[in-house]
Amino acid sequence: MLPLLLACAPGPRGHDTAQADDALVVVTFNTGTTEGIAQQEDGDGYGPEQAALSDQYYGDGLAWSAAVQSTRDFLAGVQPDLIAFQEIFWSGECSFIPTEAWPGFVCETWREGDPTVAQVLLGEGYQVACHPDKPDKCLAVRTARGRFAGCEEDLCLDGLDGFPVEGCGSGARVARGRIEELDLTVVGFHGSSGMEPEEQACRVAQVDQVFLDLGDGRPGADGARNLALGDLNTDPSRFAGFDQSAARWNDFVGESLPWQWITQVGPDAPGSYGGLADIDHVASDSLSGACWHGGLDGQPDPYTYALFDHRPVVCTVTPR
User: Fold this and answer.
1) Helix crossing, 244-252 with 197-211: angle to 10°?
2) Helix, strand, or coil here: 237?
3) What is the spatial distance between Cα 186 and Cα 49, in angstroms, rounded to a whole number?
């Protein structure tokens, strides 16, 4: 691992005078919730019944109102410039969910035209653009730093460039956004899950979308400066010996290559996914920096009990 890629950095923080003008605060967060919470722990009413409703109707995306507010508070402290969401509930689904499953969830108060969960989490001053046919996967940028090319509104569903991999489900799990003001191309990634050979093969094809051909004849990361971030659904260090998709990442990202990990990889990485693996990552061909994980090493946690499968990754990056 490169010496620059530290396991932990001070956080959370916003845009203070100690931060370089060209620094970016970058976050990736799979906000999917765990199944089968055994008991509520902080009195907000979330227990086994609510976990079952979340699984049945909300796809275990972030939809529990108390968790949305808590995560909003967490992100207000972080003040990200760029963020990638995976498994975030798309509020447009509320009209298809029975009203008896609404209490306590965002559908209880959401109405057509209201901000989406992603917009609620970030508040004013952000532009959100989502993967084609995947409104649960979105990138967002602080508008004071720039906007996504081709996206004119504050919310652009299908606002990113992306294509599905044949045989690997619907919609784009890899998507490209360009921020001209930052001269930066950002690639959001959410690899297919599972360890069966065909599932690994899907992830290999998705990695190739980042570096070889997104589906339009160009790599997803085809800019002068590029940043890729998201949930890889594999650990590029610990799993490389038995998962072909983990090994495929290492064909493109590594110490002697143009692309390098900004998040920590290797046996000493923090084990941010269940204490066993690190599958949420940030990499770049032109930026370096340091990262921390919500709820680890004394850092703030977005929620007060184990609602989330993943921990948010927060990185402060600058040009190499």
Assistant:
1) 10
2) coil
3) 38
Alpha-helical segments (H) within the chain: 48-57, 65-78, 117-122, 197-211, 244-252
318 within 8 A of 19, measured Cβ to Cβ: no
What pLDDT does 6 receive?
Answer: 28
Identify the burial level of 242 via C-beta atoms within 10 angstroms of its C-beta, where 0-12 means exposed, 13-18 middle and 19 or more buried: exposed
pLDDT recorded at residue 42 = 54
**Contact predicate 300/294, CB 8 Å:** yes
Cα–chain center distance at 156: 17
Tell me, letter by letter, the H, E, C secondary structure of 23-69: CEEEEEEECCECCCCCCCCCCCCCCHHHHHHHHHHCCCCECEHHHHH
Give the domains, in start order, of the chain with CATH numbers: 24-319 (3.60.10.10)
Whether the pTM exceeds 0.85: the reply is yes
Percent of the chain scoring above 70 in pLDDT: 90
Residue-level pLDDT at 214: 98
Distance CA(230)–CA(233), nearest Å, equals 9
118 vs 53: CA distance, rounded Å: 20
- CA-to-CA distance for 77 and 53, rounded, in angstroms? 30
Query: How much is the pLDDT for 43?
Result: 60
The amino acid occupying position 55 is: D
